[in-house]
Write a structure and sequence with these properties.
alpha/beta; 12 helices; 7 strands
């Protein structure tokens, strides 16, 4: 009997749809990408690690502002998409490397900035991943996390985690803002700023992007229909299954 690890499962889940993430409007656009580019414009000589880069949209935003970006992901297929798109965009300061977040193949104090967008909810051990991010950052180095955020309240939280896990079985957890503050503090990061936003998710493309099996897609729709009025109102649940999630952009730094 072959044992499949969580990292194996993630690799299988995302390798077959790397191209879909490159063209995904949700991933290719957003106020957070603009804010990231504006923040990194103050660090033109920085070497940046994009942790769990996916199809590379955060890497592309960073590369236009800084000296060097390492796009790092578990999926070789994703990294091929990133490399090809970077060439097409003329972003020759992006290199790729494969691996997972909890064990980074980089020397201590290698990077000025570590960024991660829409990846942390897949990490098997988010605390270990943050410790690794801290290890590879130079003293004073910056950590920027962007992800879908749990609304915190138990009723809303369990609803979000359930639909996310049904849609994508490699999903681990979307963390609330307070959880991010606690995780960063436990590792020894110093929090600088935290902002939140709202992200509309169109149901059919959200499902298609992950190639969610019909049975699980149907289960999500049934679960949505059974949601309380509180949940439906909070997530702005639409008749077609589309809904709106909270997002977070969290910045911290390593002590000098």
């Amino acid at each position: 009997m072959t044992t499949t690890t969580h990292h194996d499962h993630i690799n299988k889940q995302f390798s077959s749809q790397a191209g879909a993430y490159l063209t995904s409007a949700v991933h290719a656009s957003g106020r957070d990408l603009q804010q990231l580019a504006e923040r990194l414009a103050a660090l033109p000589h920085a070497e940046v690690l994009d942790l769990g880069c996916g199809a590379g949209h955060a890497s592309f935003a960073a590369a236009s502002q800084v000296a060097q970006v390492t796009a790092y992901d578990l999926s070789a297929s994703m990294l091929e998409v990133v490399a090809g798109a970077a060439q097409e965009k003329g972003l020759y300061n992006i290199t790729t490397q494969q691996g997972y977040a909890e064990r980074l193949p980089f020397d201590d104090e290698r990077f000025d900035v570590v960024i991660s967008r829409y990846s942390a909810h897949h990490w098997h051990d988010v605390g270990q991943a943050l410790r690794e991010a801290k290890r590879v950052l130079k003293p004073g180095g910056v950590l920027i996390i962007m992800d879908v955020m749990s609304p915190g309240h138990p009723v809303r939280d369990i609803w979000l985690q359930t639909v996310e896990a049904l849609r994508d079985t490699s999903h681990v957890r979307n963390y609330a803002s307070g959880e991010w503050l606690a995780l960063a503090n436990e590792v020894g990061f110093i929090t600088d700023r935290l902002t939140t936003d709202r992200l509309p998710l169109e149901f059919s493309s959200w499902i298609a992007r992950m190639r969610t099996p019909q049975s699980l897609s149907d289960a999500i729709r049934l679960y949505q229909e059974s949601a309380s009025r509180e949940v439906k109102n909070y997530f702005e649940l639409q008749d077609d299954g589309s809904f709106t999630s909270d997002t977070i952009m969290f910045e911290a730094h390593k002590a000098v």
